[in-house]
Design brief:
Helix content is 35%, strand content 19%. The chain is built from 10 helices and 15 strands.
Amino acid sequence: MDQQGGAGLLGFAHAAAVCASLNLAGPLVPPAEAVLVSPNAQIARTVDAALRRSIPAFNPDLAQVQKKLENTAYMLRIPQRKPWGSMAADVDAALQLASDEGRPKLLAGLQPSQMAQGAELADNLFAKLKQLELAVRTQQPDLAGLRVSEALKRVADLELLQAPGLPFSIPRDYSNLPRLVGRAVVELEVERGDASLAFVDNVNGGLSKRGTVRITLDGYSAPITAGNFLANVQDGLYNDRAVSASYTSVIVAGELKSPRPPVPLEILPLGQFDPVYRVPLDVQNGELPVLPLSITGAVSMTHVPGTESYASGDEWFVYKFDKQQAGLAGLAFDEGTFGVFGYVTEGMDVMSKLQSGDVIVKAKVISGAEKLVRPAPPVQG
């Protein structure tokens, strides 16, 4: 049993003994249920969940489908007697919303040019929901987990199609900085410093001296930080750049001769409509980010030395979260102090193999360049 699990069970036993000695009425919540109602259990634990929850959902029917599916995914985590009846009810409600009768409302808000793509996504969502319905009816937890994940990905695709842009305004103090008003994807081509064959070639098979990593940047939660990073990529700042790797992270140094100006720490808290700036979150008292650091593949800028209020304008890192080294809440000890602006969404196996001295041969923008706003510099004179 790991340290965290042992501490949780010992804590529950101690609490039960205290309640018995004080003659308190009413049963305690069992450990499994206590985990499910803990505030920290609500934080995203996967890349897909974090990116999905950051999308500004404007369609109430689609938001309800997402809620029903996330409820199902949540209940599948109950370790023993799973509430199959409750899950079946949630899946049935989602099916009703995604049916032919509910389709017009589900696609509301799309532009005429988007309707064909939206209809295809809605058809795919309905098919995944029917597969999930069968898995729940036959009480197959592993298959149900796979199907609910697939359905949630279709929900996210639809929500991204419907999202018009940022649901908040950039603070005036930062309006002159680059900003990303949506999503973008960056691709890194990496190579071993000694040119050895270290990476699997997924196209041709065998081993290769080069590997590929893709990072999804999220402007919905961190428009300034993601925009700054994307501008750096466009400017070629990370081409032929060596990395430093450790057990916990892969760090990419910035420009030493002429470093980019720092950017404010930027974090969108759960339940809030816009990010907070220059202030770390109070995680100890329940403040949690939409984009957690406590997920393997989290991408963030490093801190400016001597302060947590500003982040480097060019030095960044990929975090290799290890649950065994986390606190009792299952969160990284630095959660809430770094502003995550994206995640490795492809090639984390490549990223995990990088060693100090390995090189980013080239960084390029795959998609989302049109969503980068680069304000013109102020006129001098």
